[in-house]
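Note to self: user wants both folds in one dump. Writing first protein now.
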Amino acid sequence: MKDIVGRFSCVCLVCIATLLNGQSLIVGIPSADVAEPHHLEITHESQWNSWENGLKWNSFNFACYGIGHNTELTAALNNLNNDGSSNLALGLGAKKVFSIVKDNKALSEIKLTVGSNLLYSVQKQEPGIWVYSHASARIVATRTRLTIGGSYGTYQAFGFRRLLLSNGDVSLEPRSPTALMLGFEQPLSHRVSIIGDWFSGIHDLAAFIPALQIDVKKHVLIFGYKFPNPQTGSQALILECMFSIPMKKQH
């Protein structure tokens, strides 16, 4: 496990050093963006907490491939960590974005996003699912993009509730929540934005994550901080790095 952690940490450090790009998330929730056609986008997110019972590291890893028509295919490896994860999960899915209303004086980029992922628990060897949809729009006057929607998923995405039994053992109760998703993206300049998102409920993803996004040309780096909902987990520092690989020669 230490070797695995070391390798993924090296990948993350390479991403930091090169400021690579490619983003189909806000921070933790899906965004209204999709991968460009014939581009493979890779996202790595690391979460660190070293001030509560030793070092804790957890990661989420995504790949998105743009197939055109505002649609992307997705793959994921979630919950790889330094603690011997009990919920390592693989995922395959798709996301599509629709322009639902023409721009007007008050709002622009008015979109509806829908997506789903088939999930698979590596440890329990059981299938699961995550489905979601949200609406988003930019406020013309401030360029703020606001997102609101909902999702449903099984424990492969949302984890377990840990119950302490009378004999001292711990029982894991799978979570399958319906959760509200909220997000905002506020440009401060051409290169810097304040962003953030939130999952409602009591589960592994239930948290508010504000973050700073820095763009250098098309390159993106995100620094955030996780504030978990009550009874859901620990605070954490968050780093996301994203990059895009053209899979077809550009003419």
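First done. Writing the second protein, which came from a different request thread.
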Amino acid sequence: GLDVNTRALACMRMGQVLRRARGDFLGADTWFEKARTLLQDEHADPLVLAKLNRLQGLSRWSQSRSEEALGFFEAAACIYEAAGDVEGLGKTLVDRAGALNETRGPGAAIGSLMRACGLVDLGRDPRLAFVIAQNLSLYHAEMGQTDSALDYLGLARDLLEKDGSAPADTLRMDWSAGRILAQAGKTSDSISMFRDVRDGFAKLGLAAEAGQVSLDLSLSLLSLGRMSELKEVAQEMLPIFRSRLLHKEALAAVEFFREAVAAETITAAQIHAVSSFLARLESDSSARFRRPV
């Protein structure tokens, strides 16, 4: 007995749950298409269809199908523009920035975000303001514009703090700053940043995050040839992981890292391999660690 728009929204919510909670993109598309069929009804609200297009665009982008994602975002933008929904148009431009970055480059993504800033009321939506600032930092970093990247990251950090962010969120901002510094060749500065972030995560009991930051710290130390400090970092990692009873495959990866550092045979490629495996393990508990060459 529900109206067609309410039924379509329910289908869209089911699709979102499958995509976010299970990573089931095929199942999500099934529900999204059910919603699209319902919205062909003469009583359908075009703004609900615009929302559906945004959701399907985000789903395609999450699958690295960015050209397809752009088609959905453009369809949503046209509906919002025709309806005079400035806020909806602005949010769509924020959504499409990731897909633009993958297909047209960071310059196009920055352009989309800057246009969005003129359309949405960021004072009423601090979370959206944070997302824009964080992404502007990322895209400027990709373009090698380190100072701008750090400025936008600082803005994102301030927005988080005003919004009453959890300590872990602030640490993640500092972690990003460390990576930007390392990418820009400011390796010594990145080391002190990574140390503070690692210690902060460890105090919060977030062993997986502390371990990942330790690997970024290790890359910076290795690039400067500071082997004695690198050995200290490697020795400190294993107790942190063991204390939190993390996955045995995570422990295997960290043990390999520790042994390679102790033997002074560790390479940047091996550190990247360990880091990538730990990140993969967060979404795939069945993954098995294979020692990189």
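Dump finished. Worth passing along: The chain has 14 helices and no strands.
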